[in-house]
Amino acid sequence: VQLQASGGGLAQPGGSLRLSCAASGRIFSDNVMGWYRQAPGKQRELVVIMTSGGIRNYAASVKGRFTIFRDNAKNTVDLQMDNLKPEDTAVYFCNFQSHLGRNYWGQGTLVTVSS
User: Fold this and answer.
1) Are 19 and 35 in contact (CB under 8 A)?
2) How far from each other are the two terminal CA atoms of the chain, in whole angstroms?
3) CA 87, 105, 65, 6: dihedral to nearest 10 degrees?
4) Spatial separation of the C-alpha atoms in residues 110 and 56, rounded to whole Å
5) What is the tens place of the pLDDT at every residue in 81-99?
6) C-alpha angle 26/34/81, rounded to 5°?
7) What is the pLDDT of residues 3-42, one digit of tens each?
């Protein structure tokens, strides 16, 4: 499975950005897609994941501000990020977990929130 992510960039506090990710390759219907992030000097952490069945799991720090959208037919997942905060600054990684539990990662896209 290959993941191609796009989006990100610079936003002011309170602003919005949208990330997109497309998965390709041998994909079975039972899987999980989502986003993780890694801030400088910190470990990679969960942002949000969504199962192919529609179950979402948001990190407490982004709940109510970030929204995940998923298109199972296209194997895409988008992350709409609103009311951004400086602490959201990080490299964001698209993630795909297969029906066998194997993880695949996108190349990472930088999100910077600064005035």
Assistant:
1) yes
2) 37
3) 90
4) 23
5) 999 999 999 999 999 999 8
6) 140
7) 999 999 999 999 999 999 999 998 888 899 999 999 999 9
